[in-house]
Design a protein that fits this description.
The structure is a single chain. With 284 residues, this protein is mostly helical. Helices cover 48% and strands 5% of the residues. The protein has 12 helices and 4 strands. Strands 3-2-1-4 form a 4-stranded parallel β-sheet, sandwiched between helices. Strand 2, helix 3 and strand 3 form a beta-alpha-beta unit. The protein is globular.
């Protein structure tokens, strides 16, 4: 008797990033309520509303969890920011009925940059991101609110954010969602389509896009990242049908930005180093 040869089914690298946006929305709504209200006794949230899909999603989740009257959206344009970003952020404010304020950061940013005449776009963008966090944390103190993060998992894995800026808020409901999952969630939540469908951009320069900066589309990057997180090596990922050069782009960004996903490294001198000693699960 000859036994049939059974081949393992081909692995779909895109299957791992599929999600159920309805379940995700309910889970994240409960997460925000638990983290802010039950654990910290804080009933208000403040977030930077850029006009992009990430912060729009977070605004919708916060409004569902806390009520729109307890959500404060801060728009923080720089002089080179696109006027369309402000207009898109207004779509979210109007749709949700949340509180809004626009705080221009140009004077604060240029107040420092006037002493750095040769600054390039990357450094200037980092300064803008950190000034925006100064504003958000100060507004949170004024309002008795907690700053909410808006960075997604793809950006975090690829280091496409400013350390101690975008990643600073103590609570982030979408930090474990790939960008493509954020898009799915946004459509489910009812985020205005002009925001969902536009090309993601950090809005640092005219015609600048995230995917142009990264050198790969978010859809392909998410599939590669998901495979890496499941333990597949680069050769295995290429055999799934993804281009070797694109796998190299993602691997290089992940490996070179490992430090950005951790607290500052502390030199250990004892067995009680906070967040460092592996047998000490508490931080005091």
């Amino acid at each position: 008797m000859i036994l049939p040869v059974i081949a393992a089914p081909a692995i779909d690298p895109y299957a791992a990033v599929k999600s159920d946006p309805e379940v995700t929305a309910r889970w994240l709504e409960a997460f925000l309520s638990d983290e802010l209200v039950r654990r910290r006794g804080i009933h208000k949230a403040v977030l930077g509303l850029s006009g992009g899909v990430d912060s729009a999603c977070v605004a919708y989740l916060c409004a569902r969890a806390l009520g729109p009257e307890n959500v404060y959206a801060i728009r923080m344009p720089y002089k080179k920011s696109s006027p369309s970003s402000l207009a898109d952020a207004k779509l979210v404010v109007d749709a949700l009925g949340i509180n809004e304020r626009t705080i221009e950061i140009t004077a604060a940013v240029d107040g420092y940059l006037q002493f750095e005449p040769g600054v390039d776009a990357r450094r200037a963008g980092n300064v803008m991101a950190r000034v925006r966090m100064v504003v958000l944390f100060d507004q949170s103190a004024k309002l008795g609110a907690l700053p909410i993060g808006t960075g997604n998992k793809t950006e975090r894995m690829m280091g496409y954010f400013t350390w101690h800026a975008d990643d600073t808020p103590p609570v982030n409901p979408i930090g474990d969602l790939f960008k493509t999952q954020v898009w799915d969630l946004a459509r489910y939540l009812g985020v205005p389509l002009p925001i969902v469908d536009k090309a993601p951009s950090a809005d640092l320069e005219a015609d600048q896009t995230d995917e142009g900066d990264l050198g790969i589309t978010y859809r392909k990057a998410d599939a590669i990242l998901a495979a890496m997180l499941q333990g597949f090596d680069d050769e295995q990922i290429v055999r799934m049908g993804l281009a070797p050069e694109e796998v190299r782009i993602v691997r290089k960004r992940v490996d070179s930005t490992h430090w950005k996903r951790h607290l500052p490294t502390t030199a250990m001198l004892s067995s009680t180093a906070i967040n460092e000693f592996y047998l000490r699960p508490v931080d005091y």
